[in-house]
Amino acid sequence: MKDRDGDRRLGRRALVLGGAAAAVGTAVLARQELAHVWWRLPGVEKPRVKGAVDFPGARWLAASPANLRRADRPDDYGIDRVIVHVTQGGYSSAVKAFQDPGHGAAAHYIVRRDGRVTQMIRELDVAFHAGNREYNERSVGIEHEGFVERASSFTDAMYAASARLTAAVCGRYGIPVDREHIIGHAQVPGTDHTDPGPHWDWERYMRLARRERAARTR
Fold this sequence. Notes:
By secondary structure, the protein is an alpha/beta fold.
């Protein structure tokens, strides 16, 4: 899950390129860069409350700032994917890795075997979880405690809690609850990962997520 996605800061280069673009009506890439970092200007960034979570009931444990990129999603990067991961280890080891600045990766959420949810990165921000910069920018990453080779990792409580979480994310950003938009890490272009693996019951998971999404729209 290594993805050392470097931060793009609003600095001299962006301002110079942006000025040139305005002057000559070209430099499309420069304008796109400015569109993604305008909120870094003083007084523009959305208010952030320490310890606030996006999913009610989740526990907050902050990931290392080295394993994410501050952003203003969905205003600077649209969110149109949920990516399902498996930790290949226990909950505590996943938290430790995501809080390690040398790890180079972290997800927005971890769902435990007992259904408890921990949020480690705000959905506003880009988490380095997918191994693909574009997919990181457009997705919310959800880790699940366990091992891809162990069907016993995926409990009833985990499926139910994760489906509620995914339905909430999809509702917040208008994401269709289908397999085009809710994908496994193994489906991300360029990745060498296999999670969530052959024991993840996609049919069950999608059925639960659709039921949760329908309940939220009544």
